[in-house]
Amino acid sequence: MKTVTLRSLVREPLKVKRMTRAGLPVQVTDNGQPLWVIQAAPAHDDTPRRRSEIEAELAEVLREPPSGLPLSRIVLASRR
Fold first, then answer.
1. Sign of the CA dihedral running 42, 43, 47, 53
2. Contact call for residues 64 and 35 (beta carbons, < 8 A)
3. Using CA atoms, how far apart are residues 19 and 12, in angstroms rounded to an integer?
4. Nearest-CA neighbor of 1 among 43, 36, 41, 32?
5. Residue 15: which residues within 8 A CB-CB, separation 6 or more?
6. Which of 14, 33, 76, 79 has its CA 20 to 30 A from that of 45?
C-alpha cells in the first residue's frame, strides 16, 4: 500500500489516480495520522455473460444479408 499526504493528494491528484488505476490502494495521511484508504472502484458490466450477449448480437447481425442500399445514399439522406 502506498502512502501519500493530504497535501500531495490535493496538489497532485493525477499521481494518486495513476496509482489506484494500477490497482494499488493508497493511504492518505494528515500529520502522519491515517485518514483514508483510496482504492479503485470495481469495473462494472465486464461480466462474461454480458460479453457473450454482445457477441451473440453481433453474430446475428453478421448472419443477415448485406443491404442493397449504398452507404453514401444513407449518409446523404441523413444530411437533408
1. positive
2. no
3. 12
4. 36
5. 4, 8
6. 14
Three-state SS at 66: coil
Chain position carrying cell 449518409: 75
> Across all residues in the chain, what is the average pLDDT?
90
Determine the residue type at 40: A
Q: What is the pLDDT of residue 45?
A: 64
Backbone angles phi, psi at 11, to 5 degrees: -85, -30
Residues contacting 28, CB < 8 A, separation 6+: 3, 4, 5, 6, 9, 34, 35, 36, 37, 38
DSSP state of 8: H
Distance CA 27, CA 20 (A): 11
Q: pTM, whole model, 2 decimals?
A: 0.53
Query: Distance (Å, rounded) from C-alpha 25 to C-alpha 74?
Result: 50
